[in-house]
Amino acid sequence: MLNKLKIAITGGIGAGKSEVSKIISAAGYDVLYADEIAKDILYTDKKIQKKIIDAFGSKSFDGAKPNKEFLSKIAFSTKENVEKINSIIHPATLSLISKKLDEILILKEIAFVESALIYEAKRAKMFDYIIHVYAQENIRIERATKRLNISEEEVKDRISMQLDEEEKRKRADFVIENNSSLDELENKTKFVLHLLNALAVSKTNENNLED
Asked: 10 Å Cβ neighbour count for 154?
């Protein structure tokens, strides 16, 4: 889509991608949240529900509602299970995200998607730029245990299921380090927004010259 930018916001558990997304949203930009879209699909899509029950058993759902405690434990129990549940939910989630992005970009120049698994889902090419929110592992573990009320070991298990943070950092177009205060995080995020707006203007000018 000419003159438009699709931006991914990613980062490991506890890195602070949700905080970055809130800052971007508060600045007036549209942000789609992959987890929310996936949860909505999990609650409403009967075909997806059947595939999950076939893969993980009848305990996966309590009537029409997903058994989140059961699914959380079984999905993160092995790398194979993580890949299995992702292979069921990701295609439908990414399809809906793509549709929503196109709708936003009819009127806007830039749209954002927050997702932890951009690289794991092999969807980096879906975006013009990728922002990686980075924090030291000990900080991530401390944040995640408090926010999710899970043990340090459970956080470490989830970290081990994802692509190495240093590798993600190398692949990203922009890196926002989040090892300090929220004020500092806001300043860094707004600086990246300034750069992205400049890139959007540059892209528009290039296309106008080609026309």
From this structure: 18
